[in-house]
Amino acid sequence: MVRRSDWSSGQANLILTRLSQNQHYASVNSLKRPPIIFLGLSTFQVLAMFRRGIFYTFLGVYLRSYLGLSVTETTLFETIPMVFNILFQTLVWGRLTDRLQLRRGLLIIGELLAGVGHLLMWFLHAATPDPRLAGFVIIGGLTVIEVFWSMSNIGWSAYISDVYNAGERNAVQGKLASLGGVGRIIGALAGGALYDRLGTAFPGWGFKAGGIFIVSAAVMIVSVVPFFFMPEGGIKAQPPSANKPTRLATDASPAARGDFRVFAVFLVAMLLINSGVNSMAAVKGQFLDLREGFAASATTISLVNNIESLALIVAGLFIGRLGGRFGIRTLLVAGAVCGIGFLVAYSVAPALGFIYPVSILKGLSDALLAGSAYALASILIPPEKRGRYFAAYNASFMLSWGVSATLITGPLIDSLIGHGVGPVLAYRAGLASSALVSAAGLVVLLGLLRQTRQRASSEA
Prior knowledge:
Helices cover about 75% and strands about 0% of the residues. It is built from 19 helices and no strands.
C-alpha cells in the first residue's frame, strides 16, 4: 500500500503533465469481469437519467409558473438538497464506505429509500392547499431524499473505481454517459407528455396529479435490481493489475495522493466551471417558457433537452478514444469551452430556431467534462480513501447544481425584473453571468495545468 508521505509534489505535478501528452493509455486489466457488472451499471445509468429527465426537466417551470415561486426560490430545489447531500457524503457515508469497504450495499439502500421518499413527497405537496407552501414542501422533501441519495452517489463513484483500472475509467464513463443520454431523452419525452397530459390538461398536471412522482419512484426501485446480482466493491474488488504501472499511471496516481493541494485546486476549478453550466438547469425551462419570449410548449422544451442528450450520446461513445489521443487535460479544457460557448450563445439567441443547434454544445460539454473530470479525479484519489475523496469530488459537482443559480443567477434575474427590466432581458443577463462563472473556473484550471507542467519540467 502506498503512503502519502512516500511521494513528492514533483511527482504529483508530473501526472498532470503526462495527461496532456498525446499518449494512449490502454487498459492493463486482462481479466474478464462478469458481464453483469457493466450490464448492471448500464441499466442503472439509463434508469437514473430517465428519472432525472422526467422529474427535473419541468420542475423549475412547475415551481415558477404553477406554484408561483420567485426565480431565486426555484433554484433552492437544487441548492439546499445538494448541501445536505454533500454533508452526508462527506461526514457520514464516505467515512462509512471506507471503513466497511461497502459500495453496492449503500447504493441499493439509498435508491430504495429515495424511491419511497418521492411517493411521500408527492402526497404531502398535493395535500398542501397554499401553492407557494406546496413548492417549499417539494424543496424540503428533496432535501430529506438527498440524504439517502448521497449513499447511492458515493457508492456509485467508488464502485466504478474499484472494478475498473485507471486507463479504463475514462472510456467506461463515456459509454455510461451515452447510455444515460438515451435514458434522459426518454425521460424528457415522458415528462413532457405527463406535464400537461399531452396538452389535454393544465400545465403542471403531471406533478400535481402525481404521475411524475410515481413513475420516478418506480424507476428508482427497479434500477437497483441488477445490483443484487453484482459483486460487492471495495479494495478487494480491484483487479490484480489495478496497481501495475500504465502509461496513464506511471509516476502518477500515487504521486498526486501525496499532494492534496493539486486535488483541491482541481476541485475549485471544476466547481466554478460546472456551476456556470449547471445553473442553467433551474432557469432554462423558465426562459424558454416565457410568454414575452419564446413561449415554448412542453413538447418543445423536451425537444431542446433531447438535442443536448443526443449530443451527449454521440460524444460519450468517443470519449475513450479522444482521451487516449489528446489527453484528459485537453478534454477538460474543451468541455469547459463548449459549456461557456453554450451559455453565451443562449444569452443572445435571437429566435427559438437558434436554440436547437446551440444545445449541441451543452451535450458536448456534459460528455467531455463528465468523462475527463472523473478519470482525472480517480487517478488523484488513493484507493484506500476513495470514500472520503470521492465525497469531496462529488461535493464540487453537487454544489454546482445550485450555488451559482441561488447566489448569482436567480437574484440577478429577480432584481432586474423588480427594477422594471423585461423578463427576457433579465434572463439573458442571468445566463451571461453564468458564463462568467464558468470562465473564471477555466482560468483556474488553465493556471493549475500550466503551473504543474512548469514544475514537472524543472524537476525532471
